[in-house]
Automatic annotation (TrEMBL):
Protein name: DMT family transporter
Pfam families: DMT_YdcZ (PF04657)
Alphabetical UniProt keywords: Membrane, Transmembrane, Transmembrane helix
Transmembrane segments: 35-54, 66-84, 90-110, 122-141
Organism: Neobacillus pocheonensis
Length: 144
């Protein structure tokens, strides 16, 4: 685990930043509307990405032509819309518990079938863990 400490801290930090970003997006969406928020936030992302691209050289432009880039970009917009739209009605905690539980569910299938790399089959212990987590998610969301 100590060898992965940097990755663990980066992932944890991404979770913290994601909750703040989603809450801020929800507030922006109240003022500008959800579509205005998505366009504005995406525009800032394009500007930041362009600066990084220009500093890193144009050799990275080839990766933009990947069909996966279109899919992941569209998924990002859908996720941003879903999260920021849901926060005002069920709260940040419930939204992120649901987001994480959805990620647990889908990542278990991705790992089990090896959809994007080596397969990591589901074990009974993993399935029981996921069921316990889902019971907790159900309890938390029901209490909101």
């Amino acid at each position: 685990m100590s060898g992965n400490l940097t990755s663990i801290l980066l992932a944890f930090s991404a979770g913290i930043l994601g909750a703040f970003q989603a809450s801020m997006n929800a507030q922006i969406g109240k003022v500008s509307g959800q579509y205005g928020m998505i366009i504005g936030v995406s525009l800032v992302q394009v500007i930041v990405a362009a600066v990084i691209l220009l500093r890193g050289g144009l050799s990275t432009v080839a990766s933009i032509s990947s069909p996966w880039m279109i899919v992941t970009g569209a998924l990002g917009v859908i996720m941003m819309f879903g999260v920021s739209s849901s926060i005002s009605s069920i709260g940040t905690l419930s939204v992120f518990v649901l987001v994480i539980s959805g990620q647990i569910f889908s990542s278990s299938l991705i790992d089990h079938f090896g959809l994007f790399g080596a397969a990591h089959p589901l074990s009974l212990q993993k399935v029981i863990s996921i069921v316990v987590i889902m019971i907790g998610v159900f309890s938390l969301v029901k209490s909101s």
